[in-house]
TrEMBL record:
Its main location: membrane. This is Iron ABC transporter permease. It comes from the Bacteria. InterPro entries: MetI-like, MetI-like_sf. Keywords: Cell inner membrane, Cell membrane, Membrane, Transmembrane, Transmembrane helix, Transport. The keyword Membrane applies. Residues 41-224, 310-508 form the ABC transmembrane type-1 domain. PANTHER family: INNER MEMBRANE ABC TRANSPORTER PERMEASE PROTEIN YDCV (PTHR43357:SF4). Belongs to the binding-protein-dependent transport system permease family. Coiled coil: none annotated. It is a multi-pass membrane protein.
Length: 519
């Protein structure tokens, strides 16, 4: 009841309230009948599909490298590809803006693909590492070329993982906010940015509600497909014992490995460009942007200093992470317990999908829903400092579940049965068996959730007050105001966020459970 109660109060209620308010007029008919709406929908689907294709193509050689190759530096590759996924959207947006100042469709597609290579690579590699090489060897012995052995034997076995990862990547790209806002400007709009525009700038609640309905319907469909693909992948992994599948590449495999290293190098280009831009001034190299973070920018562009915003970010991210851990672990325990009690698989999948819904619903919809509903709760949370951590926890909780749930499901039931036969109560079985085995993943999930909350931009941009803005919000405001000093401060703040992100990713990689987990 804990995760479902929180989901009902802080997600379903606000979303339902704003949709109900918007649909009180003719908004749905008006929006659905407008050609501009379908242009936005078409661009949203098109850029998401293109980004997904680019991410899958780029990630497959990396997945091969992680799953099949025994080469020096694999751990570095594994950590390096995870860095883009957890970078704040404003950081990635500014990084690609430094490379492509004019923005445009290509920059949006590449930036979204940059974010999601890790999702495909690590998800596919997780299943690929469980596939027995003997099937491929048999195909080769019967005369198949390496390419035909891959397309006829390996690729069909990998389809559940590829389908699951592609569905999630498509969802992330379709609901991308910060990247499209920074790189698309007023020329290119997705459903997410259009909802923001109609809610904040135009106060067109009925139009925003209609667009939210379209988005929610698409999100539910994608999440159902992802859940089905994920179940197929988990079943495939359960049927195969993990065998030693890594060795040094042979023949044409060296070209695939080289391509993987090239993809990793390409992922580092925007990051390096961001660091270089942060120390570039009109007079040469300098740290003016970093020093200026102790102030409020050119001609007082900010209401708080950059350092105060960093403190606000750390405080909100810590609170959001603790809350997300409570909710995510509780939800994971519920889902695992239902699975072990042989509950109907459809019910378990429905509950799992419901807990993933916050990943795809517009953060603007949730934020505005908070402002029109939470005054009914004791204390009027609309003016509380807890509003931002609550919104961030809604975003982080599904990611925590995806990291903890596969680990708990992988615990050998014979260990739990042995503990029970020796007299342990169900609670003691959890305490003595499940929690110790999942401890490393719990810490990794906490670190992972922390950096995601630290860089959260969508909901926070709508809810944070000017005097309590977080660092991503300050970056967005600095880049939209004139003055070279403001730009230098924005790039310096982005670099600081990136350094924290890299440090946490290294911690996550060190604590990683090697045989299970979504990431």
């Amino acid at each position: 009841m804990v995760p479902l109660g929180f989901l009902a109060v802080f997600f379903l209620w606000p979303v339902a309230a704003i949709i109900q308010r918007g649909l009180g007029s003719d908004g749905l008919v008006r929006v659905l009948g407008s050609p501009d709406t379908w242009s936005v929908v078409l661009f949203t689907v098109g850029q998401a599909a293109a980004s997904t294709v680019v991410a899958v193509i780029a990630a497959m050689p990396v997945a091969f490298l992680l799953a099949r190759c025994a080469l020096p530096g694999i751990a570095v590759v594994r950590a390096a590809i995870l860095v883009p996924f957890v970078l704040p959207t404003v950081v990635v947006g500014l990084a690609f803006r430094s490379l492509m100042p004019d923005g445009g469709v290509l920059s949006i597609v590449l930036a979204n693909a940059f974010f999601n290579v890790a999702v495909v690579a690590r998800t596919v590699a997780g299943l690929w590492s469980h596939l027995d090489r003997r099937a491929e060897n048999a195909a080769r012995a019967l005369g198949a070329s390496p390419l035909r052995a891959f397309t006829s034997v390996t690729l069909p076995a990998l389809r559940p993982a590829i389908g699951s990862a592609a569905a999630i990547v498509f969802l992330f790209c379709a609901t991308s906010f910060g990247v499209v806002l920074l790189l698309g400007g007023a020329r290119y709009r997705t459903l997410e940015t259009e909802i923001y525009l109609r809610t904040v700038d135009l106060l067109d609640l009925s139009g925003a509600a209609a667009l939210s309905l379209i988005q929610i319907t698409a999100v539910v469909a994608v999440l159902v497909l992802a859940a089905l693909a994920r179940r197929r992948r988990e079943t495939a992994m359960a049927l195969r014992a993990r065998t030693e599948t890594t060795r040094r590449p042979r023949g044409g495999e060296w070209w695939v490995a080289a391509t993987a290293y090239a993809v990793v190098a390409a992922l580092m280009v925007p990051i390096v460009a961001l660091v270089v831009r942060s120390v570039s001034t009109s007079d040469g190299w300098g740290l003016d942007g970093y020093r200026a973070l102790s102030g409020t920018g050119f001609r007082g562009s900010l209401q708080i200093s950059g350092l105060d915003a960093a403190v606000n970010s750390l405080r909100a991210a810590t609170d959001a992470t603790l809350l997300a851990l409570l909710l995510g672990v509780s939800a994971s325990v519920v889902l695992v317990s239902l699975g072990r009690s042989r509950a109907h698989p459809g019910f378990v999948d429905t509950l799992d999908t419901a807990l993933m819904l916050p990943l795809g619903v517009s953060a603007v919809t949730v934020g505005f829903g908070y402002l029109i509903t939470l005054d009914a709760l004791p204390g009027d949370l609309r003016t509380s400092a807890a509003l931002v951590p609550l919104a961030q926890a809604i975003v982080v909780t599904p990611l925590v579940i995806r990291m903890i749930l596969p680990v708990l499901r992988s615990v050998d039931p014979r260990l739990r049965q042995a503990a029970g036969s020796l007299g342990a109560s169900p609670w003691r079985v959890w305490r003595e068996v499940d929690i110790p085995l999942a401890g490393r993943s719990l810490i990794a999930a906490a670190a992972f959730g922390f950096v995601v909350a630290l860089g959260e931009f969508g909901a926070t941009s709508f809810l944070a007050r000017p005097d309590s803005a977080t660092l991503p919000i300050v970056i967005g405001r600095l880049i939209s105001r004139p003055g070279e000093l403001n730009n230098q401060m924005a790039y310096a703040a982005c670099t600081m966020l990136m350094v924290v992100t890299v440090a946490v990713v290294l911690l996550v990689e060190r604590l990683r459970v090697r045989s299970v987990g979504e990431f």
